[in-house]
C-alpha cells in the first residue's frame, strides 16, 4: 500500500488561518505586526521568494515591507539599515534574504539583527537557545517539519530519527528538535560511510542535502516516515526533492511530496515567528 501523503499545502492553510486570527486580535489592541524584508542584488529565485513572503504576510493581516538594494551595496550600509530597523519599535521581524552578494559576510549580517527580531531563527542567539532548550525563534524549515510530524500524530519518543544533512539552517536544528522530543538521532552527511545501512534502521528520515534521488526505496524501512526537504530540478526542469518519491512511497508509511510538502510549511512558520515576535514585544 503506498505511503500516505503529508499535505503541506493543507496544513499550512490551517496555520495561516490561526495566524490571521491571532493577528486580528493584536490589531484590535492597536498592534500591527510588521516584517521588514531586505533583498540585496537581483537573484531571480530570491526575488520570487521575497514576493511570496510579502503576499503571505498580507493575506494573514501582517504588514510586510520589501526593501530592494543593489548588489554592490556596501556591507556597512546594509548593517546600518539593519540597526535602524532594530531600533524601530514598529518593526517586529527582520529578514535578510539569502544568499547575499559575495562581498558580504552572511554570518556578520545575520548576527547584526536583534535576536528579538530574528524571525528566520538564524542568529547565533537563536541557535544557542535551541541547543539548551530555551525559548527562542526556531528556523522555519525544521519548525515546519516538526509541525508535519505532529499533524500525523508521530510520537517520537524512543524512535530512531535519521537526518541527512548538517547545515546550520536545516540539518543541525532539525536534529536538536528531534532530540527535544526524545528521539534517538543520527546525523548523516557527505562523509558518512554506508548511508543506506543507517537509513534502513530509521523510523523517521529527514532528507535535506539538495541532491536529487539521494534516498531510494531500498534505503527505507517499511512504514517509515520520510520528510523531504530537498529542492532540486529533474531532467525536465520540474521541481523535485532529495527523495525518489515514486519508489519510496511504495515502502514508507508517510511521505511529503515536492512540491506541496515542506515548502509551504516553511513559509507558514515565518508568519508564526513574526506574529510571536509582535506578541512578545507587546508583553515586554
Salient structural properties:
284 residues, globular, single chain, 6-stranded parallel β-sheet, 42% helix, 3-stranded parallel β-sheet, alpha/beta, 10 helices
Textual characterization of the structure:
- This protein is an alpha/beta fold and 284 residues long.
- The chain has 10 helices and 11 strands.
- The strands form 3 sheets. A 6-stranded parallel sheet has the order 1-11-8-7-5-6. Strands 3-2-4 form a 3-stranded parallel sheet, with helices on both faces. The chain has a two-stranded antiparallel ribbon with strand order 9-10.
- Strand 9 (232-233) and strand 10 (239-240) form a beta hairpin.
- Helix 1 packs parallel to helix 10 and helix 6 packs across helix 10 (262-283).
- The radius of gyration is 19 Å and the shape is globular.
- It starts with a strand and ends with a helix.
Q: What would you say about this model in short?
A:
The chain has 284 residues and is α/β, with parallel strands linked by helices. The protein has helices at residues 8-28, 44-59, 75-87, 106-112, 124-132, 140-151, 171-180, 195-199, 245-248, 262-283, and strands spanning 4-5, 34-40, 63-69, 93-96, 160-164, 184-188, 204-207, 225-228, 232-233, 239-240, 254-255. The relative contact order is 0.17.
- Describe the strand arrangement of the main beta sheet, using strand numbers: 1-11-8-7-5-6
- The whole-angstrom Rg is 19 Å
Derived from helix and strand composition plus strand pairing, the structural class reads alpha/beta
Query: Terminal Cα separation, in Å?
Result: 52 Å
- Report the helical percentage: 40-55%
User: What is the succession of H and E elements?
Assistant: EHEHEHEHHHEHEHEEEEHEH
Poorly predicted ranges? none
Subunit organisation of the chains = single chain
What best-fitting shape do the alpha-carbon axes yield? globular
Strand content: 15-25%
Number of strands: 11
Mean pLDDT: 96
Q: Number of helix segments?
A: 10
Largest sheet: 6 strands, parallel
Amino acid at each position: 500500500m503506498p505511503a500516505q501523503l503529508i499535505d503541506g499545502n493543507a496544513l499550512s492553510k490551517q496555520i495561516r488561518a490561526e495566524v490571521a486570527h491571532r493577528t486580528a486580535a493584536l490589531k484590535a489592541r492597536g498592534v500591527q505586526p510588521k516584517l521588514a524584508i531586505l533583498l540585496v542584488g537581483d537573484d531571480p529565485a530570491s526575488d520570487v521568494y521575497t514576493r511570496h513572503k510579502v503576499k503571505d504576510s498580507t493575506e494573514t493581516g501582517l504588514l510586510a515591507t520589501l526593501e530592494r538594494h543593489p548588489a554592490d551595496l556596501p556591507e556597512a550600509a546594509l548593517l546600518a539599515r539593519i540597526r535602524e530597523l532594530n531600533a524601530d519599535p514598529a518593526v517586529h521581524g527582520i529578514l535578510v534574504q539569502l544568499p547575499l552578494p559575495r562581498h558580504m559576510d552572511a554570518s556578520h549580517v545575520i548576527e547584526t539583527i536583534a535576536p528579538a527580531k530574528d524571525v528566520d531563527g538564524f542568529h547565533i542567539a537563536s541557535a544557542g537557545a535551541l541547543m539548551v532548550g530555551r525559548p527562542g525563534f526556531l528556523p522555519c524549515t525544521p519548525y515546519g517539519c516538526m509541525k508535519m510530524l505532529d499533524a500525523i500524530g508521530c510520537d517520537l519518543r524512543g524512535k530512531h530519527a535519521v537526518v541527512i544533512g548538517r547545515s546550520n539552517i536545516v540539518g543541525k536544528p532539525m536534529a536538536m528538535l528531534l532530540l527535544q522530543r526524545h528521539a534517538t538521532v543520527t546525523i548523516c552527511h557527505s562523509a558518512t560511510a554506508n548511508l543506506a545501512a543507517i537509513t534502513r534502521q530509521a523510523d523517521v528520515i529527514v532528507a535535506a542535502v539538495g541532491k536529487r534521488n539521494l534516498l531510494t526505496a531500498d534505503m527505507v524501512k517499511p512504514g517509515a516516515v520520510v520528510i523531504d526537504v530537498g529542492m532540486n530540478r529533474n531532467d525536465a526542469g520540474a521541481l523535485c526533492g532529495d527523495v525518489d518519491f515514486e519508489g519510496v512511497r511504495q515502502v514508507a508509511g508517510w511521505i511529503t511530496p515536492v512540491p506541496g510538502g515542506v515548502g509551504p510549511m516553511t513559509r507558514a512558520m515565518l508568519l508564526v515567528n513574526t506574529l510571536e515576535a509582535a506578541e512578545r514585544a507587546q508583553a515586554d
